Amino acid sequence: MSNSSQINISNLFTKNTVSSQDGTTIGYRSLGEGPGILIIHGALSDSEDYTQLAKNLAQNFSVYIMDRRGRGMSGVQGNNYTISKELEDVQAVRNETKANFIVGHSYGGLVALEVAHREGTVEKLALYEPGVFIEPQAWQWLSDYEVALKEKDYREAFAHFVRGIGHTPQLTKLPKWYVKFLLKLMIRGQHWDKIVTMLPENLNEHREVLKLSGTYGNYHSLEVDTLLMMGGKSSPSIKQMVQELGKTISECRTLTISKADHFGPDNDHCPIEVANQLRSFFADKE
């Protein structure tokens, strides 16, 4: 998608802000009319990356895309960041918008799961490859990532993350120096500049993922109508996670979007296909 096209789509949205429990400003975009859907984005992204998804849903729903703290229209993460801060932010937006349908992608999917698990007010929950790890993780790469950040070697930090998180198995198996070289060729310009601004937040967020790894059994008590989606081109480990999580959540249906990968809901991937599935799910009265 061209930058001009993205700007035009972004201009369709109304921009709003609320104050979270600790006083942090949380921004969100809104579009459409109807039952409220709140979209919670992933780690190295912000609300602007989900405008195509929201635009397609806004034909039938009031859609809200929040900027999680640390990016976009929202305030900083803060020194006392935990995933509980994210839950407070989500609640602040929901109090203002009355959105009882939630969509979460990747780390945003983990946040959405925790919101639904800890609160009883979510009517329907849709997750696209949430940041859940079935087995407890060790993740030496987090320390290497932090060292690279302190040295301001952002390409090095990003290479540690991509190899360590395992969303692209082909890169995980390659030497780090080569992954760093490939990523430099693949991600440049404004896209790279945007990623750099979120690398510190990404570190803190994946520390929270690490803490929650292996605790997915807690979601057995979740009593929310749940749609769990994955991409047909995603890694085997993600597909295994989705299948296991789908068996754990009692009211859960799973589906695969065949031509998508981990970034399916993002503007530049398969937002229309994802939106079509979400529209059917949220419109279903059963």
Question: Could you please describe the fold and organization of this structure?
Answer:
- Strand 1 (14-19) and strand 2 (25-31) form a beta hairpin.
- The chain is built from 11 helices and 8 strands.
- The protein is of the alpha/beta class.
- Strands 1-2-4-3-5-6-7-8 form an 8-stranded mixed β-sheet, sandwiched between helices.
- It has 2 domains: 3-133 and 213-283, Rossmann fold (3-Layer(aba) Sandwich); 141-210, no CATH class.
- The longest helix is centred in the C-terminal third of the chain and has 24 residues, at 189-212.
- It starts with a helix and ends with a helix.
Labels describing this entry:
alpha/beta, 8 strands, 16% strand, eight-stranded mixed β-sheet, Rossmann fold, 11 helices, globular, 286 residues, 2 domains
